[in-house]
Amino acid sequence: MTIPAKEPLTRALEAVPQANPIRGILLWFAPRSQNRDERFRESTVRVIIALVLAVMSLSFAISLFIYQDPWGLISFPTMNLVVLVFVVAAGVTVTRGNLDLAGWLIVIGSFAGVTMTHYILRSAAGDENNSAFISIPMFMFISLAATVLLQRRLIMLISIITVLAFGISEFLLSVDPSQANPMQIAGVVSFGVLLLVEGIILQTVRYEFDSRFEALDDAIRQEELAREQAETDRKRAEEADKAKSQFLANMSHELRTPLNAIIGYSDILVGGMAGELAPQPTRLLGNIQSNSRRLLSLINDVLDLSKIEAGRIEVFNAPLQPRKLITDTVESLRALAIEKSIALNVTISDDVPEVILSDGRKIAQILTNLVSNAVKFTSKGSVDVDVTADSAQWHIVVRDTGSGIPEQAMAYIFEPFRQADSTDARSHKGTGLGLAIVKALAESLNGEIEVNSIPNQGSTFRVSLPRAIPTEVGSVAPAANTSEAM
Q1: What are the DSSP E strand ranges found in 185-315?
Q2: 208 contact partners, CB below 8 Å, separation of at least 6
């Protein structure tokens, strides 16, 4: 399992220059393992080795040069030297990556040092029990070291061995082992109970620690698996989305080609280029034309949506005349309003500039979708198009007196394939792509769209676009978004 890159020791190493000798010391403390549990154990072993090495080196120096203790088979200088040998061996072992052996070497070295110290103190004290009170905390350190450095199942074993070693040494070192006094026996028994209780507590704590550590490892492992799965799913979704967009683009192109042919040939027949037609065939050809154009419009909407989802809509800003663009676009839709016997009005404020910098094709598409949508949902009254401007933006407002939008539908009205009435019995048919495309086109022009609606009274759509004016009429001035893909 991989460990987070920035640990405290890692940050400390980054802060120390390469030539600084402190860096070499810090580098020795840095664990080499990549496993979280192994890194924790390795860090613990390295820290304990450094602490014991420092303490025992200081004790060795004090024993020789200050107290001037004599050398002997069992003496303080020998005890310090034995512990130092075990600690240095543990340091070499952990450097080679053998943590278990390093832990055993530290525990055995501690056991040897504590036992020798107890022997020295007990020999000097004779029958006095004061030495026992000094030795007891040292013997308790062995169980603590085993808890930190060895496997959990060995904690009680080390505790029992420590109790036996203390008891045997107490009886063997007494002046008359066969006549040990009750206080001495009570002291050994009390210490044995104390050490066993310590072992039970330490084993329980270690079990709880290991359980939580394993749970944390499992949680991290599950999180990594979930992240990998999410990344895999994301890549698959992206690939599927690209494939879908490409499929829609290809199919739209393949469908538009025969439709354009149908519309073109029907225009030729209606126009009389193939001879005069009777009223009935002319009416049928008109139906073919209107339905073909409606189908072509739906295909164009699907193609536009596929481009939006693929992020391939490009914006080409150029100087244009907004008054002429708005008027021509609305006039091309007037037949829809006449067919439903509703008024279609256009009002352009004097504040609207004569020339702006924007993408005229997309503005016309936005207006076409909004006006045709308003006409579709208006059975009586009017559809009004108001164009205004302020110092920073110009606004296209399309207002109708139609059925309006229910309040619950306002949250998703701009989502693809969603309509205010999505039931099979709805009176107005459609794909639900128009407003989604309008919103995407407005945002591609660095604009925004707002909607207000009252059921059974009508709706108002307001498109706000940047008021970018060319520096010179006829030249293309830089704008905030001259060629931006969504």
Answers
A1: none
A2: none
* Composition of the chain by helix, strand, coil, percent to 5: 65, 10, 25
Structure token pair of residue 311: 């992020």
CB 404 within 8 A of CB 381: no
Instruction: Report the predicted TM-score, pTM, of the whole model to 2 decimal places.
Output: 0.46
Using CA atoms, how far residue 83 sits from 56, 79, 132, 184, in Å, is 7, 6, 21, 29
What is the Cα–Cα distance from 85 to 91, expressed in whole angstroms?
10
| C-alpha–C-alpha distance, residues 258 and 263, integer Å | 9
Q: What is the pLDDT of residues 334-393, one digit of tens each?
A: 888 888 899 999 999 999 999 999 999 889 989 988 998 899 889 889 999 999 999 889
Contact in structure between 396 and 465 (CB atoms under 8 Å): yes
Q: Is 309 exposed, middle or buried (0-12, 13-18, 19+ CB in 10 A)?
A: middle
Q: Are 64 and 79 in contact (CB under 8 A)?
A: no
- For the segment 139-178, what is each residue's pLDDT rounded down to a tens digit? 888 888 888 888 888 888 888 888 888 777 776 665 455 5
Tell me the two tokens of residue 130: 């004061």
Asked if residues 284 and 276 have their Cβ atoms less than 8 Å apart, the reply is: no
Query: In this structure, are residues 350 and 386 in contact, taking their beta carbons and an 8 Å threshold?
Result: no
CB 157 within 8 A of CB 143: no
Q: Are strands 382-389 and 343-348 parallel, antiparallel or unpaired?
A: parallel
Tell me how far apart the alpha carbons of residues 395 and 351 are, in angstroms, rounded to a whole number.
Answer: 11
d(CA 389, CA 465): 9
Q: Measure Cα distances from 281 to 6, 260, 265 in Å.
A: 80, 20, 14
- Pairing of the two strands 458-466 and 448-454: antiparallel
3-class secondary-structure state, position 461: strand
In terms of Cα–Cα distance, which of 417, 424, 420, 425 is closest to 409?
420
Let me know how many helices (H) and strands (E) the chain has, helices first: 13, 7
Q: What is the DSSP letter of 485?
A: B
> Rounded to whole angstroms, how far apart are CA atoms 297 and 335?
16
Q: How far apart are CA 66 and CA 87, in angstroms?
A: 23
Residue ranges of the chain with pLDDT lower than 50?
1-6, 175, 422-431, 472-486
Q: At what angle are helices 130-149 and 155-172 packed, to 10 degrees?
A: 160
Question: What whole-number distance in Å separates Cα of residue 52 and Cα of residue 87?
Answer: 7
Task: Tell which residue, 46, 15, 19, has the closest CA to residue 30.
Answer: 46
Structure-block tokens of residue 434: 């128009």
Tokens of 444: 């591609």
Dihedral sign, Cα of residue 410, residue 414, residue 415, residue 420:
positive
- How many CB atoms lie under 10 A from the CB of residue 228? 10
